[in-house]
Write a sequence for this structure.
């Protein structure tokens, strides 16, 4: 049976309260307008269930009537996984499922609902005297369900892992409305297939995550943070290896930043002053999280040794206050946003083996430079785990639309060819969504794709969960 949008809204009102169903497209803006403004499609309706039972009821009805559902958290995704393709889908916003069910700092875990923002989860952990280390730029609006569905990464993957590695268990509503009760706090559970990991990173195509149990860690006693001038990504890689050897897992962040990113932010008034001690083509933002009772000065000692070895110059800024540290991290987190102030930008969320990061940047920059030497490379990101946001800003003064029309596809082809050659991935932490479905078919092992389709068919035989995303 085929329903019109009005009929869908009427049917949903039998399941939910009137204030939990949005049927007027005029009021859907916050749910259908995604951050990069690439996809422009309304939904048949937006629903805001208040509890897990309502999510189950929605799924049962949708599965019985062939209505597509799009699970949505904070609508911060960058590949369009959380917004409509056809306009006939129902967006299931989890924002009203935001309870903190349990926090157990001593045992090192917390259980929270999918609609809780990552920042709120941080606060709940902090109030209990613990640390939830997953940190991303959009954590004020990104919600736990979406963070897990996209397997978000962030700046502390180096020490703590990405979202998948920080999750002990999930609760999820399946396509037919059944509830997978996978919440547990077990560190070891060797009883067959890992269904938790199957749902994490599935972008809402296999189930709707409604709650999760997350790992907590002891809060650091303090931080040692520095912005270090390095002559090249190759030097940064050597510095990373030396600091990792010296600091171990207390080295919780190592970010690579090009000078152009700081200059853009200064030009547009996005930061109050230059956080760097001096000009340099590249910088490394390092942070050591000092455990309780840990020795101070490890970062300073490591940088002094690197200076004596001629690896870095003397232009290093050590954060001497929380304001200094905040400025450094604000500058880092604005690296993606600042490029929009310069016009159009062609962006890539890619990863390669850590040792290949310098080759990725050198070869990718050279390949795009052959297309037009005026295109400005702005590669930055997680040097410590091989995930570089390899972005290219339009030539200064160029027409943004013409730039995207003429160069988006050739630049993508050039960068992805380098990534494949170096044994990397075309999506490191943003996912596939609707943006990269064709690309996934080109680069993924055919047998892997067959296995993924088989799993999808088994768990969602009617194809109602986020159709057209991840697997087209």
């Amino acid at each position: 049976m085929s329903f019109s949008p009005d009929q869908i809204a009427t049917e949903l009102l039998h399941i939910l309260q009137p204030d939990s169903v949005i049927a007027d497209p005029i009021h859907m803006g916050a749910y259908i307008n995604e951050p990069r403004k690439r996809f422009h499609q309304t939904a048949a309706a937006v629903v805001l269930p208040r509890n897990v039972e309502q999510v189950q009821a929605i799924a049962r009805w949708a599965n019985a009537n062939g209505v597509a559902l799009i699970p949505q958290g904070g609508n911060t995704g960058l590949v369009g996984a959380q917004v409509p393709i056809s306009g006939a889908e129902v967006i299931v916003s989890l924002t009203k499922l935001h309870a903190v069910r349990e926090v157990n700092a001593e045992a090192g875990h917390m259980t929270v609902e999918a609609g809780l923002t990552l920042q709120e989860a941080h606060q709940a952990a902090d109030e209990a005297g613990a640390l939830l280390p997953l940190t991303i730029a959009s954590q004020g609006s990104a919600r736990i369900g979406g963070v897990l569905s996209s397997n978000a990464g962030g700046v502390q993957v180096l020490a703590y892992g990405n979202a998948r590695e920080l999750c002990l268990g999930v609760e999820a509503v399946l396509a037919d409305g059944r509830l997978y009760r996978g919440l547990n706090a077990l560190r070891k559970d060797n009883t067959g297939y890992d269904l938790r990991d199957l749902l994490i990173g599935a972008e809402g195509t296999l189930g709707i995550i409604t709650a999760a149990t997350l790992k907590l860690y002891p809060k650091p006693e303090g931080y040692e943070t520095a912005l270090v001038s390095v002559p090249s990504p190759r030097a940064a890689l050597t510095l990373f290896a030396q600091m990792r050897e010296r600091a171990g897992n207390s080295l919780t962040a190592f970010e690579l930043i090009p000078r152009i990113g700081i200059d853009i932010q200064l030009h547009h008034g996005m930061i109050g002053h230059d956080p760097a001690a001096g000009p340099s083509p590249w910088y490394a933002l390092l942070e050591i999280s000092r455990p309780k009772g840990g020795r101070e000065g490890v970062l300073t000692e490591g940088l002094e040794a690197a200076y004596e070895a001629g690896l870095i110059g003397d232009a290093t800024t050590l954060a001497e206050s929380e304001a200094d540290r905040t400025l450094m991290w604000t500058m880092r987190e604005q690296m993606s946003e600042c490029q929009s102030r310069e016009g159009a930008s062609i962006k890539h969320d890619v990863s390669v083996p850590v040792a290949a990061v310098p080759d990725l940047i050198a070869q990718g920059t050279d390949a795009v430079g052959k297309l037009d030497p005026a295109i400005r490379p702005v590669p930055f990101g997680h040097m410590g785990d091989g995930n570089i946001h390899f972005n290219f800003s339009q030539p200064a003064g160029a027409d943004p639309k013409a730039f995207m029309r003429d160069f988006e596809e050739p630049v993508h082809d050039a960068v992805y060819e380098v990534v494949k050659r170096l044994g990397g991935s075309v999506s490191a932490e943003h996912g596939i969504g609707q943006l990269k479905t064709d690309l996934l078919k080109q680069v993924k092992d055919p047998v892997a794709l067959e296995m993924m389709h088989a799993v999808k068919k088994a768990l969602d035989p009617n194809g109602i969960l986020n159709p057209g995303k991840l697997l087209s």
Remarks:
- The first helix runs from residue 5 to 13.
- The mean pLDDT is 96.
